[in-house]
Design brief:
Elements lengths: L23 H33 L13 H11 L7 H5 L3 E4 L8 H16 L1 H13 L6 H6 L1 E4 L2
Antiparallel strand pairs: 1-2
Length: about 160
């Protein structure tokens, strides 16, 4: 299926066919491991840019180092909200993000909120555990942050 096509949804628009999500949880884990490396590379590149900018501005630009953690959210927003509908790790493992209601592409802002909720959940063990448990007990393997943003990760 190409990135412009939609995915068939069931009669209930909030429930994607479970066959499309079978095995997605384990693939999501390994995709995230690849994405962590990509995010570290991008963060490193952004940090070098900020360091040079700080030199040019006599140190004032170094305040931008506070924004480096946003690199992870921007990475997810631009890749999941882009044409491929997947991060580099997701593409490597055959996954794609779709809008749960329409089966179509995910909007960039929705992808950014999705990433933000994920990183907030990871920041606290209790929220992360609840987020993962939700996905383990659902037929469509959607985590809590997927449900809140209306995104489904599928194997096209």
């Amino acid at each position: 299926m190409t990135s412009g096509q939609t995915v068939p949804v069931t009669m209930n628009a909030y429930e994607v066919d479970p066959r499309l999500t079978r095995g997605a949880i384990s693939r999501r884990f390994w995709a995230y491991m690849i994405d962590v490396i990509m995010i570290l590379i991008w963060s490193w590149i952004v940090s070098i840019g900020i360091a040079f900018f700080g030199l040019i501005t006599f140190g004032f630009g170094w305040a931008l180092f506070a924004l480096v953690p946003l690199t992870a959210i921007a990475y997810n927003a631009l890749t999941i909200g882009g044409r491929a509908q997947a991060t580099v790790g997701m593409r490597a493992l055959g996954l794609r993000a779709v809008d749960s209601v329409t089966g179509g592409p995910v909007h960039v802002v929705t992808a950014a909120v999705h990433a933000l909720l994920f990183y907030v959940a990871i920041g606290t063990f209790a929220l992360w555990a609840i987020d993962i448990l939700i996905g383990l007990f659902r037929n469509d393997s959607r985590f809590g942050h997927d449900l809140l943003t209306g995104i489904t990760i599928i194997r096209p």
